[in-house]
Amino acid sequence: MTINHVGMYVKDLEGARAFFERYLGAVSNEAYHNPRTGFRSCFLSFGGGVRLELMNRPDAVEQSPAPARMGYIHIAFSLGSAQKVDELTALLKAGGYEVASGPRTTGDGYYESCVVGFEGNQIELTV
């Protein structure tokens, strides 16, 4: 069994798509729109078969922005090297995104950083 995709509601579908395309090399399909419900979505591919579905609809409700809230909390991207983690972390910081932690080697041996990306979503960058 494999995970096919993860879905995420966002306020700004185009802004979220641009974030993942610019910083993480995502390739997007053509956006879908259901005019009856107002639902919009697009699938982003990152290679290796993993996809992220970005979704938007007028009646979506926000959850607490607390970084330690229950539920899904971050998306982790494996970049292949510590140097790439350092470089992308610096690029995101220069782009105005908050670096919540790292880059660092964690107690369990991962080299990573965590950046608060678009709309407060946490993006983990790891080797």
Describe this structure as you would to a colleague.
It is globular and about 50 Å long. The chain starts with a strand and ends with a strand. The mean pLDDT is 92. The chain folds into 2 domains: 58 residues, 2,3-Dihydroxybiphenyl 1,2-Dioxygenase, domain 1; 56 residues, 2,3-Dihydroxybiphenyl 1,2-Dioxygenase, domain 1. By secondary structure, it is α+β, with helices and mostly antiparallel strands. The protein contains 2 helices and 9 strands; from the N terminus they run E-H-E-E-E-E-E-H-E-E-E. The strands form 2 sheets. Strands 1, 2, 3, 4 and 5 form a 5-stranded mixed sheet that branches. The protein has a 4-stranded mixed sheet with strand order 6-9-8-7, with helices on one face.
Number of strands: 9
Sheet bearing the most strands, described? 5 strands, mixed
Q: What is the ordering of alpha helices and beta strands?
A: EHEEEEEHEEE
Count of separate structural domains? 2
Structural class: alpha+beta
**What overall form do the CA principal axes indicate?**
globular
What ranges have pLDDT less than 50 throughout 5 or more consecutive residues? none
Query: How big is the Rg?
Result: 15 Å
Beta strand %: 35-45%
Which helices and strands, and how do they pair?
Elements: E1 5-9, H1 13-24, E2 27-28, E3 32-34, E4 39-45, E5 51-56, E6 74-78, H2 82-94, E7 98-105, E8 111-116, E9 122-126
Parallel strand pairs: 1-5, 6-9
Antiparallel strand pairs: 2-4, 3-4, 4-5, 7-8, 8-9
